[in-house]
Specification:
The complex is a heterotetramer of chains A (1038), B (459), C (189) and D (198).
Chain B: H1 20-32, H2 37-63, H3 78-102, H4 108-132, H5 137-143, H6 160-193, H7 197-206, H8 214-247, H9 259-285, H10 294-325, H11 328-339, H12 343-355, H13 363-367, H14 369-396, H15 411-434, H16 440-451
Helix pairs in contact in B: 1-16, 2-15, 3-4, 3-8, 3-9, 3-14, 4-6, 4-15, 6-7, 6-8, 8-9, 9-10, 9-14, 11-12, 12-14
Chain C: E1 6-15, H1 18-30, E2 36-39, H2 47-51, H3 58-84, H4 97-123, H5 132-135, H6 139-142, E3 147-152, H7 160-169, E4 174-181
Chain D: H1 4-32, H2 51-57, H3 62-65, H4 68-71, H5 80-87, H6 101-111, E1 116-119, H7 132-137, H8 142-146, H9 163-170, H10 179-183
Helix pairs in contact in D: 5-6
Classes of the chains: A alpha/beta (1038), B mainly alpha (459), C alpha+beta (189), D mainly alpha (198).
Chain lengths: 1038, 459, 189, 198
């Protein structure tokens, strides 16, 4: 068989063979694995018989329901490398090539297949941490919806035929256009040039829908040279963010989060010496950055430039413009004055960042302001080689394509779906030959004449240059699962065929050789193996600051902006970004950090705007801009600016896999660039009105008010410096009294966790890390609507203060492993017990599913398998490989919860005990702790006084949730410290102040979990679960 | 002029003079006659409804508990509401047969047998729910019982659900034995009256060779007294243990110490209401008006009034304690009950259980079937909603606002509830058809006492 | 049925009034009979003392059985939870007897109830379907409204006419022979 | 109707019913669902490998083939390359001078580098995670769980390996020289659930 065929056989066949051997995967769960997937995806005959036997057993109350234990096989290799021991994990370095930013990765593989992705500790940008998209990337590898072989129209074809047909056209092609993403590695760029050199008229266009082109264009005009400013939040004392969600979706958020958290660090030992930075957020949308700001102002995008100009004038002494602007836009004068005062007093330590989607005049104003504050060199660093290529102007691309080209090659882009203003299909049809090369059969590949399957990033060789003087590599963890090929490999293959016989390009056997050659050229003294082992290489380069061309900035700044009654901002979706992760079920089910909505996108509007439009959550809105019109459901998000609609990209896709179709949502691409083609994602002239119809929006959290309960405690820096143990005054603890003598944990370990709420930004990375580590199921939109999502850790978000511009409090909530666990007392079959080391254990195979433990848990952190959620994933030979063999996969009718990653605790304990030592602090890192960008989660042995968790336990800011119930939780929360400007005082309401009195039950969510009469007509997937509607449909009182 | 003291004299047990043989004929008439058309229709209707239950159970087992409306904050739904409702109804039977026996209330003989039968059928319906509401009933039916196994792991005897297994199991068994013991002499009478050899064989087999020998009667009477003595604390303990299912938790609105007496009063209240509902129909259908007299209804309604006030007191006391205790979470839970999304269920409960039964103060209402029947029906509805309010509202909004959520029953939930009524009524109809619904032996003993005005008191 | 061979095993006297039965019983007891019994449709007050039957032990033994149940419960729950497989639950001690009390009570009642039922069957000599009363046609009357005294032939000082005389002397007007039919064949089943 | 024979028939019927119920409840499951987790289970293997010869007479150490036992959870079955260390030369012949069938299969698999599929003998349920390295470093010999393997021609499952069998050993009082005794633990090994289930 061909080399490619052998590699494929090796990987998939070997995996399937291993699957039946006990050696590798403990994936087999309680049902026997012989339930081969039924051909039509429905229930196989054997599975149906299994279920009927269970049902009859229960009804007959006689025969036991047990099934024969399958006979199992050990696959002993013929010849195997010594270092690879079955069951033992191996770690390799790689790079997040398919993501918005190429972070460094450290991937854990077991039995030759990758199962967990984390950050590469040696990588200077993300230093070992990761976000939700990085963690969820593993699921996209084992995705049966991936394009599995080359296709011509509707029928599949072999690679040989595809190459032959394509090269045959390319031979005589005069004009060739190649469209790629903006994050191309240096070797891929070299390969592309090599390929394009062969044609007389060849163009390379870069297409991105979620890009910061206006900002880069402004900088190019102002500084005359290509590059980008890198904010240094750890060096900044005052940060003013103008609609820039730098902790969320704007730029390398992991680096920003690490720096921001360093700047916010609080010195528990010596509170007086705490030097905290202060973050002012001036935003139109409620973003993750806004929720972490000390002061937050709401402003329309059109007024951002005027605001910055007013700030500059105020810095120079003329405060009148700022005051007039504040009145006109309803800004809080005290906060505006505080910004001016702070900027004046922290020259050289201040920083202004503007959102990438804003028009160029805002960036010009920001550049002026930064120069006045001489930020460049102090809090701003210049990077001449940005990770992303400049994005091509859509008008230019349209001009070239409309004349018709001989060959159009689309590598990993989906313009048919997200072309600004839509209508790319017409341009595509003009090309004689259209070739789409992507991981999924997206809308674009469906329209192309040839659809070629790409390797997933974990199956490819690649390199990336995130920054000047920094190079990282991507190496395959597994042979390609399907008949796929890397895009660069295709280019190389075509170039070699096109090239004349003696061309040097023919020397390279495949893309791997070409990559090695490129590395050898640039890094002569470094061996290929060291590159792969460390995964990242730094060369210290000195970058001179570019000179500031004031006149160009002045001209740019004067561009006047005309605004309509309504404005709209289009942001990348927090989880699926611009739609490239839309077929990833983990990301679709990840609640949005602000609205907690899953499986959908909507138009976020403020409560006042909703009232003005007479709209309830879920009602349809008609959003029209310059002729194009969209129907989008309304989502009420307190904190959004009035008369502003915030839309997200990535949904409303029509092809690319089962999950994409299940997600639904609205494609907002037609609105891109309708108002100002240079700033496509900011629409200043928009009409929004209520439309007929409703769509049920699903939230995993429906009530956001604290009702004065001391669940989340925070304080100001002044409070903290006055009394480090200020937490005690914020709640009342009854005298602790125990009926029984408490269990003695002094001997051996006592596992506890500390969560520093001052560091946690609420980014949800922990949720996906936990889902990947512990084989947690995805339940789908319908079950989420019924309140049955399975996440073991959730990030609760509470709102306090002014309902229009509230302060947000993020709190990761997971099993607290209580010493007096209420769940253990009520389990009738001893399925949940307590280990002598303080863990609340859950024996899945013993649980019979009475669900009393979940009812009795005051934190409601237990999750129940209401349906056989894992069945489909278990019976699919490819998806099954994503499971972690160290964790049992749970069957229907079984309760599950956070186990503090007991498989990792045991691994560390066994290894230490085998060596005769004790477990050192830091040897056990839970999955959420390892992923957390802010390193807010700390886990360890509380009995060891030197351990970090024991130290944090002694901090004055420590409190525990619902401590007054005397269940003795083992998760210690550290109160968040806010740093409001002394002049303004506690503008951002503390969690505790006025809110307890006000009766506003911030439940802006739609009427709770209940399908609307309108929706009942919608197809309900199972006939027996039709709901009936309560007579009291509107009950929404305090 | 002496006041009319006739009101004080105990009303005659049986209206008019009747000889034991006539009594036998009256009671055994339905048992020995060919089933009437009306009875056949009734059984086929309730049988059809009862079929709903196994269908919904099979659907639940095949597709998982997800087919019900239960979700994350509200882990228990209609199944547990039905369980407590049926166990509560069962307790009235034991109350009449045991507690009133100990208090030597003669009027109990007319309705004792029927009430005990109702207990057994109610407990049978109740026992289905805790088993089938578990996620894996095919394992739960084994692992809840401490039988010797090769895993060496047994049950957690601190859990109220484990107590339930012992309590409801014992209660079902003791009530069945108590009922069967009372039935043996009547079965002997039936055996001797039976014409058809098969009926003679069946009744003969069931009457375990009873011949009325006095040496057997001494042990029989002592045993009957012992069962009455055991059942009284048992019935109070079983419904206390059922209330422990909620009182032992930390959920606001559940962990209050008033629950055991509150649940027992509720049980007696709903039990008597159900007995009254069925007795009135039984009386008309089998012409036993002279045995189950209006006086019986009057006395039962008096007990209903008492327990209605007790339940009303409990509702008020819960609110007061929540306010007096000063715990913010408790206060919110009770305010949420009265004014939250489930306020409609709460006010239905209060009106049906406390307001409407006050009409029973009027003697005429108590004695007239037409007036008291709707009240009694509403009480059944009210008591079901009381359990609904307790189970659902406390679970759906408790400590952390982030985990609040709603509960909506699905068609499978409702199918199970209606199906359980079908099963209950089918058993009742079968009982009335095949077994004597009034305890003839005790009736004859009481007859002797009242009619022959023979001195001495009947033991 | 009638031509089957039968033999007389005693004499039975029937009364219509329970008080007459009580007086007759006193006579029979005074006459020294031991293997005799009264059959009544419902328990007649005073008949036990009249026949000299001691109070039934069912209550006492039942109570003892209850305590045996209590002991079993304490032993079972205690041994399984604290020694057989000690599992720590919710910060409670291994032998948390306070939490086991409901099971103590339930097993007390269960064992008492089962024993009482067993005793009624054993001491009341139930579970024996064969009785000469059936063959002599007295059973239907005794389980309806009439009261009978049965003097068995196996009594040491029994003689046919002495028994008839005694019954007549107590005012019994309906005296019948107690007969028992032979089996058709002597097969075991 | 109610003759003495009627009594006897009732007693016999009740007796038969109770007895058959008891027998069905105790032995039924094992008869209807024989599982491969009972003692004495000795499945046919692709190569009739004899531990008696290799471990018994030749006294090859267990760790030579099952290398994983010391360092990991699974005691691995050796790759064919380990067998070929000796069987490159040692190729025993049977009485008629031809190669023994086992050796023929081994060489055939070795040339084509095709893995061998051994039938698992000591197989625990999937939700139980047994770790060999902990037991080896605690000084437990292979024979304590797998029985006298060095005497077995075909590997047989000596004990039923059920949970109670494991717990009997875990709950013993720790032998004086063991680490548990040093730490002063009451039991030889921990018995809380997450020791084996997770």
């Amino acid at each position: 068989m061909s080399e490619q065929e052998k590699r494929r056989y090796h990987s998939l066949e070997y995996m399937r063979r291993l699957q039946t051997s006990a050696l590798s995967t403990h994936v087999e769960n309680l049902t026997s694995p012989e339930d081969a997937a039924a051909p039509d995806g429905g229930i196989s005959r054997r599975e149906l018989l299994g279920r009927i036997s269970k049902a009859s057993a229960a009804l007959a109350i006689g025969a036991t329901g047990c099934e024969r234990k399958p006979r199992r096989v050990i696959v002993s290799r013929a010849e195997g490398p010594e270092y690879q021991q079955p069951g033992k994990a191996l770690h390799y370095a790689s790079t997040f090539t398919e993501g918005p930013f190429p972070y460094g990765l450290n991937i854990k593989t077991v039995d030759g297949r990758p199962i967990k992705i984390d950050g590469n500790p040696d990588h200077p940008i993300n230093g070992g941490v990761s976000n939700a998209q990085v963690q969820a990337w593993i699921l996209s590898l084992y995705d049966p919806d991936r394009l599995q072989s080359p296709m011509r129209g509707e029928e599949t074809a072999s690679w040989a035929k595809a190459d032959a047909a394509i090269v045959e056209v390319l031979k005589s092609a005069a004009s060739v256009v190649v469209m790629t993403r903006s994050t191309l590695g240096p070797s891929e760029r070299a390969m592309l040039e090599e390929f394009l050199r062969r044609f007389p008229r060849a163009r390379h266009f870069v297409h991105e829908s979620a890009h910061d082109a206006p900002r880069r264009a402004a900088w190019r005009k102002i500084y005359g040279v290509e590059g980008e400013w890198l904010p240094r939040f750890d060096a900044a004392e005052i940060i003013v963010s103008v609609d820039a969600d730098f902790l969320g979706v704007d730029g390398p958020s992991l680096e920003h989060t690490r720096q921001f958290v360093q700047a916010r660090a609080v010195n528990d030992a010596d509170p007086a010496a705490t030097a905290m930075c202060r973050l002012y957020a001036v935003e139109s949308a409620m973003t993750l950055t806004g929720s972490n700001a000390d002061h937050r102002l709401r402003l329309r995008p059109s007024a951002m430039a005027a605001f910055l100009r007013a700030l500059r004038a105020a810095l120079r002494g003329d405060a009148m413009r700022l005051r007039r602007l504040a009145e006109e836009h309803g800004l809080d004068e005290r906060v505006a004055d505080a910004i001016v005062d702070d900027l004046r007093r922290h020259r050289g330590g201040a920083l202004v960042v503007a959102g990438g989607h804003l028009p160029e005049n805002v960036h010009a104003a920001a550049a002026f302001l930064n120069h006045d504050l001489d930020a460049p060199g102090n809090t701003l660093e210049w990077n001449p080689q940005p990770a992303t290529l400049p994005v091509s102007a859509p008008s230019e691309v349209a001009a070239v394509l409309s004349q018709g080209v001989d060959a159009l090659i689309l590598l990993g882009v989906n313009p048919v779906y997200d072309w600004p203003g839509g209508g790319f299909e017409a341009l595509l049809s003009k090309a004689a030959l259209s070739v789409g090369h992507d991981v999924y059969r997206t809308e674009t590949l469906a329209a192309c004449s040839w659809a070629l399957p790409s390797n997933h990033g974990l199956e490819s060789w690649n390199d990336a240059a995130p920054r000047a003087g920094l190079r990282s590599w991507c190496q395959p963890m597994i042979a390609p699962l399907f008949d796929t090929r890397q895009e660069a490999e295709s280019l190389l293959r075509w170039t070699q065929i096109l090239a004349d016989p003696d061309d040097t390009i023919r020397h390279f056997g495949d893309w791997h050789d070409y990559l090695k050659h490129q590395v050898a050229q640039t890094f002569a003294d470094v061996s290929w193996e060291t590159c792969l082992r460390t995964g990242v290489l730094r060369t210290d380069t000195h970058t001179a600051l570019p000179d500031f061309d004031a006149t160009a900035a002045e001209a740019l700044e004067q561009q006047e902006t005309v605004a309509g009654s309504f404005e709209a901002v289009i942001l990348p979706h927090y989880a699926v970004h611009d739609g490239r992760f839309a077929n990833n079920a983990w990301l679709q089910e990840l609640p949005d950090p602000i609205s907690k909505m899953v499986w959908d996108n909507a138009a976020a509007i403020s409560p006042k705007t909703a009232a003005a439009l007479g709209v309830r959550e879920g009602d349809m809105l008609r959003i029209a801009a310059n002729g194009t019109e969209l129907r989008v459901p309304a989502l009420i998000v307190p904190g959004t600016m009035d008369q502003v609609a915030v839309l997200t990209l990535g949904h409303g896709r029509s092809a690319g896999g089962e999950v994409v179709l299940a997600a639904g949502g609205v494609n907002v691409a037609p609105l891109l660039g309708r108002d100002n083609p240079h700033a496509p994602r900011t629409l200043l002239r928009v009409e929004v009105s209520k439309d007929s119809g409703r769509r049920r929006l699903v939230r995993t959290q429906q009530a956001f008010a604290l009702h004065g309960r001391p669940i989340v405690i925070d304080g100001t820096l002044a409070e903290f410096q006055a009394d480090p143990a200020f937490v005690e005054h914020k709640r009342h603890l009854p005298r602790e009294a125990d009926l029984y003598a408490p269990f003695d944990y002094s001997k051996g370990h006592k596992w506890e966790m500390a969560i520093n709420l001052n560091a946690c930004t609420g980014c949800n990375a922990c949720m996906i890390a936990c889902q990947a580590e512990n084989n947690i199921a995805v339940v789908g939109r319908e079950e989420c609507d019924r309140g049955r999502d399975m996440h073991w850790i959730r990030v609760d978000r509470y709102l306090t203060g002014d309902p229009e511009n509230p302060a947000a409090h993020h709190q990761p909530m997971l099993c607290q492993h209580c010493d007096n666990a209420p769940c253990e007392n009520v389990c009738p079959v001893n399925a949940t017990t307590h280990s002598p080391e303080g863990l609340n254990e859950m024996a899945y195979n013993r649980c019979v599913g009475t669900r009393y433990c979940s009812n009795n848990c005051p934190y409601k952190v237990r999750r129940f398998n209401f349906r056989a959620y894992q069945d489909k994933m278990l019976r699919d030979p490819v998806q099954e490989l994503a499971h972690n063999p160290q964790v049992t996969v749970r069957d229907v009718g079984v309760m599950e919860k956070c186990t503090f990653c007991v498989q990792r605790i045991n691994a560390a304990k066994f290894a230490a005990r085998n060596r005769g030592e004790n477990v050192k602090d830091g040897a056990v890192r839970t999955a959420c702790q390892e992923a957390c960008p802010a390193q807010a989660i700390v886990f360890g042995d509380a009995n060891d006084p030197e351990s970090l968790v024991a130290k944090l336990k002694r901090s004055g800011r420590r409190f525990r949730v619902l401590e007054e119930l005397n269940v003795k939780p083992n998760v210690n929360y550290l109160a968040r410290i806010r740093n409001p400007h002394p002049g303004v005082g506690d503008a951002a309401e503390s969690a505790h102040a006025k809110d307890s009195k006000d009766k506003v039950d911030m439940v802006y969510a739609q009427a709770p979990v209940r399908p609307d009469p309108i929706n009942v007509a919608a197809p309900v997937n199972s006939v027996h679960s039709v709901h009936f509607v309560h007579p009291n449909n509107e009950g929404q009182s305090a | 002029m002496s006041a009319d003291t006739s009101i004080l004299k105990p009303a005659p047990l049986i209206e008019g003079r009747i000889t034991p043989r006539e009594l036998d004929d009256a009671v055994f008439a339905p048992v020995e006659s060919f089933p009437t058309g009306r009875w056949l229709i009734a059984v086929s209707v309730t049988g059809a409804i009862a079929l709903l239950f196994p269908i919904c159970i099979a659907n639940t087992i095949l597709n998982g508990i997800g087919t019900w409306g239960v979700n994350q904050p509200v882990g228990w739904g209609l199944a547990i509401v039905n369980f407590v409702f049926w166990v509560g109804i069962g307790h009235a039977g034991t109350l009449i047969s045991a507690i009133l026996f100990l208090f030597r209330q003669k009027w109990r003989t007319g309705i004792a047998r029927f009430a005990e039968a109702m207990t057994i059928f109610a407990v049978f319906c109740a026992m289905q729910f805790p088993l089938f509401h578990t996620g894996r009933p095919w394992l739960a039916m084994f692992w809840l019982i401490p039988y010797p196994n090769d895993q060496r792991i047994y049950q957690n005897f601190r859990s109220p659900l484990e107590w339930d297994v012992f309590a409801v199991g014992t209660y079902g068994l003791i009530s069945f034995m108590f009922w069967y013991l009372g039935l043996i002499p009547d079965l002997a009478t039936a055996r001797d009256r039976a014409k058809h050899p098969f009926r003679k064989f069946v009744y003969g087999l069931l009457s375990v060779g009873w011949s009325g020998s006095n040496r057997a009667w001494t042990h029989y009477e002592k045993a009957y007294l012992m069962f009455a003595g055991l059942s009284t604390p048992l019935v109070l303990s079983v419904h206390s243990i059922v209330s422990f299912d909620f009182a032992v938790s930390v959920i606001p609105g559940w962990h209050t110490t008033i629950f055991p007496p509150y649940f027992v009063a509720g049980a007696i209240f709903s039990g008597f209401a159900m007995v009254a509902t069925l007795i009135v129909i039984l009386r008309r259908m089998f012409h036993l008006k002279h045995i189950i007299t209006d006086n019986h209804l009057d006395l039962m309604n008096k007990i209903v009034i008492v327990t209605s006030l007790m339940v009303g007191y409990a509702y008020a006391m819960e609110f007061f304690i929540a306010w007096y205790g000063g715990v913010a979470v408790e206060r919110y839970v009770f305010m949420n009950r009265a004014m939250g999304p489930y306020a409609w269920a709460y006010w239905t409960m209060v009106i049906c259980n406390v307001v409407v039964p006050q009409l029973l103060w009027i003697r005429r209402v108590r004695r007239s079937v037409l007036l008291m029947y709707p009240i009694v029906l509403l009480i059944n509805v009210g008591m079901w909603f009381e359990r609904f309010v307790i189970v659902i509202t406390s679970l759906h909004r408790d400590y952390l606002p982030s985990s609040w959520g709603m509960y909506i029953p699905t068609w499978t939930d409702i199918g199970l509830f209606v199906g359980s009524f079908g099963i209950f009524l089918t058993f009742i109809l079968l009982f009335c058809r095949f077994l004597p619904s009034v305890s003839v032996t005790e009736m004859k003993a009481a007859l002797l006492h009242t009619q022959s005005a023979h001195g001495g008191d009947h033991e | 049925m009638s031509e089957l061979r039968h033999k007389q095993v005693g004499v039975a006297g029937l009364y219509d009034d329970p008080s007459a039965l009580v007086r007759a019983a006193v006579e029979v007891r005074r006459a020294g009979y031991t293997r005799w019994d009264c059959h009544t449709p419902y328990p007649v007050h005073g008949l036990d003392t009249a026949m000299g039957i001691p109070e039934s032990p069912v209550g006492g033994i039942g109570l003892l059985a209850g305590f045996a149940g209590l002991g079993t419960a304490i032993g079972l729950t205690g041994w399984l939870s604290a020694w057989h497989y000690p599992i720590h639950i919710g910060g409670k001690p291994l032998f948390s007897w306070q939490a086991f009390v409901p099971i103590y009570f339930e097993l007390f009642v269960l064992f008492a109830g089962l024993t009482v039922m067993g005793l009624v069957f054993a001491l009341g000599r139930l579970g024996r379907w064969h009785s000469p009363l059936h063959d002599s046609g007295i059973m239907p009357e005794v389980t309806c409204d009439r009261f009978a005294i049965v003097l068995e032939a196996s009594d040491p000082n029994y003689s046919e006419d002495a028994a008839r005389a005694l019954l007549a002397q107590t005012g019994c007007r309906d005296i019948r022979p107690l007969i028992e039919y032979e089996e058709e064949d002597d097969a075991f089943l | 109707m109610f003759t003495r024979k009627f009594d006897r028939r009732v007693y016999v019927a009740v007796g038969v019913f109770l007895f058959s119920g008891a027998v069905a409840a105790s032995f039924g499951p094992y008869v209807l669902w024989p599982s491969n987790r009972e003692a004495g289970y000795a499945p046919e293997q692709p190569i009739p490998f004899s531990h008696a010869v290799h471990a018994g007479t030749l006294k090859i150490d267990c760790m030579y083939c099952h290398t994983g036992a010391e360092t990991g959870a699974q005691a691995t079955v050796p790759p064919l390359s380990t067998c070929m260390n000796c069987h490159e030369e040692v190729q025993p012949v049977d009485s008629r001078g031809e190669l023994k069938p086992g050796i023929v299969t081994l060489l055939d698999h070795w040339e084509s580098r095709r893995p061998l599929l051994w039938n698992k003998v000591s197989d625990l349920a999937d939700f139980a995670y047994f770790d060999h390295s902990r037991h080896i470093s605690a000084g437990i010999s292979c024979q304590e769980c797998h029985g006298p393997v060095e005497k077995m021609d075909r590997v047989r499952r000596e004990w039923g390996m059920k949970m109670s069998w494991c717990l009997n050993c875990h709950m013993q009082t720790p032998p004086p020289d063991s680490a548990a005794a040093v730490r002063g633990d009451a039991m030889r090994a921990p018995i809380h659930c997450t020791t084996c289930h997770r």
